[in-house]
Amino acid sequence: MAAPYRGHGRGVDVMRVVRGILKNDRPLGDSLGIRNVDRQLLYSVAHDLYGKARYDLAQYLFAQLVLYDNKDPRYMKGLAAATQVLGQYEYAVHMYSVAALMDVNDPSVVMHAGDCFRAMGKHARAFDSFDLARSMCSRPEHKLIKLRCDQALAGIRQAA
After folding, report:
1. For the chain, which terminus, N or C, has the lower number of CB atoms within 10 Å?
2. Alpha carbon distance 70, 120 (integer Å)
3. Average pLDDT along the chain
């Protein structure tokens, strides 16, 4: 039998980790001993790096967070946003799609996917995304998203 993986100076039984993830439906980070408080700290650092325009490092940290806990939509949204700002629009659209499935009531991810489609010159897809995001804006806190979608839709109509 192979020796256990020894990451971070600790012995990790990979099969035990995989069984724990599959059996208990728990995040990989938990199985590796990466506590929620550690993930929150890492998220704070990634968010701070994004705010300081260090998008490549933010993207890396958000990717780690998605790996450690693929069920927290904040991590996927952060990864998508950093990927978008780096001009990797096709990848960002895929990530925004996953984020939309993780939180079906969040119109912002659909709107940001529209931004990516627009940047790629896919104006029909962008229009559909902005239109869908606008239709999802049912809460008062969605007011600015709805306004931004209205502006984007008007811009696409005017350019056509």
Report:
1. N
2. 27
3. 87
